[in-house]
Amino acid sequence: MKKINRRRRASAVAGVALLAVAVSGCDRMEVPIISEPTRFVGWTLVEHLQWVEAEIDKAIAVSGIKDGWFKSFSGEEIEWTDDPRSRYEIFGSLLPRACGGGGLLVQSLVVRDVPDWAEISDRMRAAWESEGWVVTSVFYPERPDNPFYRADRRDGAVLSLNSKAEGLILSVESPCSADATMSTGPLKLEERNAYLEEMLERPYTPPEE
């Protein structure tokens, strides 16, 4: 059975940090964008996980870069692939963050060395606008050598893409929810844990070596 693509971060820790600085040109990209909720939705934690996963998959499809995206945590880089075990590990570490009286999810992925970063940035912006998101530049005035767009929705959801030749940083932030499973304490993870186990049962055919 093919192993999940794991990369130890002995030197990767520095690499990811340098990429974050290089892509952003400022410290703010080392943490995801967190916006104040404009309204509460009633989604459960599982529904938030499903939404975040779907938005990431859509954004990656728009980018045209299928391979190389990864999440960095716990001393390793876990590559985002169609392998259910990859999704299981990445989402297994994702817990609600406080937002007013509720919770939200934030997931960020990185891909390095993207020659057509400017074209991808324009394509992503157009795709988000076509879906009704309000897209604005985080930098003012805009930086042609480092386009950084965020897309906002009325329910408080936020998408963002920070682009430069060194790489792309994609961030997906779910709307704020007052559902009990989105509480930041005490955590209610029974439904989520059952969903993650079901995720491992998804049909998957590994690519040929």
From TrEMBL:
Organism: Leucobacter komagatae
Presence of keyword Signal: yes
Residues spanning the signal sequence: 1-25
Keyword Signal: yes
Protein name listed in UniProt: Lipoprotein
Lineage per the UniProt record: Bacteria, Bacillati, Actinomycetota, Actinomycetes, Micrococcales
Alphabetized UniProt keyword annotations: Signal
